[in-house]
Design brief:
two-stranded antiparallel ribbon; alpha/beta; 8-stranded parallel beta sheet; NAD(P)_OxRdtase_dom_sf; 10 helices; AKR; TIM Barrel; AKR_Detox_Biosynth
Length: 317
C-alpha cells in the first residue's frame, strides 16, 4: 500500500492530508480530531506550507504549521507521520522567494511552528526566476546535511525548470527534488500529462497532486449553474460545467455505482492509479468528510473503470 517519495527512502500511504484548512476552516480542536483520525486510519503524509493561511482576514501565515506543531507536541505522534511543508510564497515584508538566506530563515521559522527538529519533505512552493537554481539547491543541500530536512521537493515548476534542477543537482552533487506538486486531476489533465509527467517518470520524481478534487467539482456537488451558490468555492468550478465536465461526472457516477463508492472516492482512486503518482492531496473539515477520503485509499478500480474514466476525461487534440 505504501509508496516511495521519488527515489528517497521515505514511504507514505497513498493519500496526503491537505493542511491548508488547519487553523482556518478547521479550528484547533477540529484539526486535532482530523489529524488523530487520519493517522489512526494508517495514513501518514501531512502537507502544509508556511504561507497557510495568510489569505484569511487577520492571519499572518504559519497558522497551519502552528496547529500541526501543537498536535505533534500533544500527541507524541511525530514518528508516525511524514511532515511536508513549503517555502517561497509571499509572507509579507519581503519574505518570499528561494534565496539561500531566506530559505535559512524560513526553515527555522517552520521548525519552530511545527515544534520539531526536522522536516521530512521540504518543498519549493513556487519557482523563483530571480534566484539561480544552483543557489536554491545548494541551500537545500545544506539543510539536508544539517539534518533539518530529509528530502526536498518542488511545487509549481515547469517541466523545463524541473529538468534543469535535476541536471544541476547531478552535476553539483546536491540532493535532488524527489517530489513535484502539480495541479492535476480528472478535469485538469493536459498540462501535467503532456509536459510534466514525462520528466517525473524519467527522473524518478514522485507526484503529489493538489486540487485533486478540482475545488469540489469532482465530488459531484456542482452539476448546474444553480449549484454554484452552494459554497464560496462554487464560482471557481463554473468553467467545468461544460459537455466534458458532465461526461466526467456521469462516468464517476457509473463507476461509483459499480464500486459502491462516492464520486470523490472514485476521482481520488483514479489519481492514485496513474503512473508516477505518490499520493494526491485532499482536505477535509469534518471527520465524516475525512472518512470518505480515507475510503478512496482502499478503493481498487478495475481496468474497465479506468478506461471509462480515461475516455470521459480525454482532452481533445
Amino acid at each position: 500500500m505504501k509508496r516511495k517519495i521519488g527515489n528517497s527512502g521515505i514511504e507514505v500511504a497513498p493519500l496526503a492530508f491537505g493542511g491548508n484548512v488547519f487553523g482556518w476552516t478547521a479550528d484547533e480542536a477540529t484539526s486535532f480530531s482530523l489529524l488523530d483520525r487520519f493517522v489512526d486510519a494508517g495514513m501518514d503524509l501531512i502537507d502544509t506550507a508556511d504561507v497557510y493561511s495568510r489569505w484569511a482576514p487577520g492571519h499572518a501565515g504559519g497558522e497551519s504549521e502552528s496547529v500541526i506543531g501543537k498536535w505533534l507536541k500533544r500527541g507524541g505522534k511525530r514518528h508516525r507521520v511524514i511532515i511536508a511543508t513549503k517555502v517561497g510564497m509571499d509572507m509579507g515584508e519581503g519574505r518570499k522567494g528561494l534565496r539561500p538566506d531566506y530559505i535559512r530563515q524560513a526553515v527555522e521559522a517552520s521548525l519552530r511552528r511545527l515544534q520539531t527538529d526536522y522536516i521530512d519533505l521540504y518543498q519549493a512552493h513556487a519557482d523563483d526566476p530571480d534566484t539561480p537554481l544552483e543557489d536554491t539547491l545548494g541551500a537545500f543541500a545544506d539543510l539536508v546535511t544539517q539534518g533539518k530536512v530529509r528530502v526536498i521537493g518542488a511545487s509549481n515548476y515547469t517541466a523545463e525548470r524541473l529538468r534543469q534542477a535535476a541536471d544541476i543537482s547531478r552535476r553539483d552533487g546536491h540532493p535532488s527534488y524527489q517530489s513535484l506538486q502539480p495541479h492535476y486531476n480528472l478535469v485538469e489533465r493536459a498540462d501535467f500529462e503532456a509536459k510534466l509527467a514525462p520528466v517525473c517518470a524519467a527522473q524518478g520524481i514522485g507526484v503529489i497532486p493538489y486540487y485533486s478534487l478540482a475545488s469540489g467539482f469532482l465530488t459531484g456537488k456542482y452539476r448546474s449553474q444553480q449549484d454554484l451558490g452552494k459554497s464560496v468555492r462554487g464560482q471557481g468550478v463554473a468553467k467545468y460545467l461544460d459537455a466534458r465536465g458532465m461526461r466526467i461526472l456521469a462516468a464517476l457516477d457509473e463507476v461509483g455505482r459499480r464500486a459502491d463508492a462516492t464520486p470523490a472516492q472514485v476521482a481520488l482512486a483514479w489519481l492514485m492509479a496513474q503512473p508516477t503518482i505518490t499520493a494526491p492531496i485532499a482536505s477535509a473539515t469534518s471527520v465524516a468528510q475525512l472518512e470518505q477520503l480515507i475510503g478512496a485509499a482502499r478503493l481498487q478500480l478495475t481496468q474497465e473503470d479506468l478506461d471509462l474514466l480515461g475516455e470521459a476525461s480525454a482532452v481533445a487534440d
